[in-house]
Design brief:
This protein has 240 residues and is mainly beta. The chain has one domain (19-239): Clam (outer membrane lipoprotein receptor (LolB), chain A), CATH 2.50.20.10. It has four helices and 13 strands. It has helices at residues 2-16, 20-31, 114-117, 122-125, and strands at 36-45, 51-61, 65-72, 80-84, 87-91, 98-101, 126-134, 137-144, 153-159, 164-171, 177-188, 194-202, 210-220. The chain has a 13-stranded antiparallel beta sheet. A hairpin with a 5-residue loop joins strand 1 (36-45) and strand 2. The longest helix has 15 residues, at 2-16.
């Protein structure tokens, strides 16, 4: 009886050790520090090959505060976005005051929406409903914690070795596939941060269109709470 019990425990150990919530939290940390600054280039590609490019400076503090400053093109220079928890704003210098925006809108057009551009950590917005092993990957099924999250469900493929996302399928509450995110080109950003340098997305709702984010410098940095306020939005360029 004792040996039977031991055998059962040994067989169960891998399953008991598969903690989807812990894996998702580690994915967040492997993608970026909790507080950081970074530079990104976003490219929208149309079916006829036309491209529109943006360069953004981004800062994040803690788990629910993130902002972005548009550096290029010249027509958008100085525009800023701010997200605090589920609240988002856009500041346009010519308008002179922050405007409310939503997660499913897009200040850059293309397939990436505001939630993609100002993403909070996955473990902040989603619960892990289930986890499976498929070869060298974990498959996480995620459910939005609130109705304010842009996607009701995510199916995330995470490579086991480095616990980094490979693909993420984003679904509406109806079960409709909205878009697929693909993470590519893993590289060393310094200070122990090794993560994908490229994120691409396409959508069955926009046949022939594609959007790409190229990640530049990502490094730890602490910010004062004042930085993530509406009053500071016209001054975000002072952070650089």
């Amino acid at each position: 009886m004792r040996y039977l019990l031991l055998a059962i425990l040994l067989l169960a150990r891998p399953a008991l050790g598969l903690d989807g919530t812990a894996i998702l939290a580690q994915v967040d940390r492997n993608l970026a520090p909790e507080s950081f600054e970074m530079y990104r280039k976003l490219v929208n590609i149309e079916p006829d090959g036309r491209r529109k490019e943006y360069v953004l400076y981004t800062a994040k503090k803690g788990r629910d505060q993130v902002l972005a400053l548009f550096l290029e093109p010249a027509s958008d220079e100085g525009r800023t976005t701010l997200r605090v928890a589920d609240n988002m704003w856009l500041y346009i210098p010519d308008v002179g005051k922050p405007l409310r925006i939503t997660s499913l809108q897009s200040v850059v057009g293309g397939i990436f929406n505001n939630s993609d551009l100002m993403r909070l950590e996955f473990s902040v917005e989603y619960d892990v409903e289930s986890i499976q092993e498929e070869g060298d990957a974990y498959i996480l099924s995620l459910k939005a914690k609130t109705e304010f999250v842009a996607y009701d469900r995510l199916k995330m493929q995470v490579e086991k070795q480095n616990l980094l996302p490979v693909t993420i399928e984003a679904y509406a509450a109806s079960g409709l596939l909205i878009k697929t995110l693909r993470y590519k080109d893993v590289k060393d950003f310094g200070d122990g941060l090794v993560r994908p340098g490229v994120m691409e997305t396409d959508s069955p709702l926009y046949i022939g269109y594609k959007s790409v984010i190229l990640f530049g410098k990502i490094q730890k940095r602490n910010f004062a709470d004042e930085v993530f306020t509406l009053n500071y939005m016209p001054r975000i360029k002072e952070l650089r």
